[in-house]
Amino acid sequence: MKPLLIVAIGGALGACCRYLIGLWIKPIDPGIFPWHTFLVNISGCFIIGFSCSYLSQSKGFSAIELFLTTGFLGGFTTFSGFGAETYMLLKHQAYKIAFLYIAGSNIIGLLSVWLGYEIISLAKQ
Q1: Read out DSSP for 65-96?
Q2: Which of 1, 48, 75, 78 could form a disulfide with 11 if both were Cys (CB 3.0 to 4.6 A apart)?
Q3: 94 lies in a domain?
């Protein structure tokens, strides 16, 4: 139960930080480009790369690692997890799998968003 609580607290804090960054960025640049999401995704990727490298030096279960990577960054941005997983595939020279993961996540992800929108559009008719 303790690991679940650690993840939950980290996730709640990460989600709150994502929301606050959105409130901070949107009034600065009200253009069409989603700068708040871009900033969150890129900073999350940096934080997960830094923390995974730093925390990998310790042995065994780390509550800090669980709190930060699964919890905080999971609530902040799942893009960081995608980046870290892709990096590990590339690091292990699993280039074909990395390409399939990148292409599949983006293409199937976008198609899934489109499908979700279309289902609701059709239901409203």
Answers
A1: HIIIIIIIHHHH-SHHHHHHHHHHHHHTT-HH
A2: 75
A3: no
Q: Let me know if residue 112 belongs to a domain.
A: no
The Cα–Cα gap between 91 and 99 comes to 13
In the chain, how many domains are there?
1
Distance CA 49, CA 69 (A): 10
In a domain, 96, yes or no: no
Q: What is the domain extent for residue 57? A: 2-77
Task: Measure the CA–CA gap between 109 and 78, rounded to whole angstroms.
Answer: 13
Report yes or no on 31 lying in a domain: yes
- Global pTM reads 0.75
Per-residue tens of pLDDT for the chain, all 125 residues: 799 999 999 999 999 999 999 898 877 777 778 888 888 999 998 998 888 888 877 766 688 888 998 999 999 998 888 998 999 999 999 999 999 999 999 999 899 989 988 998 888 78
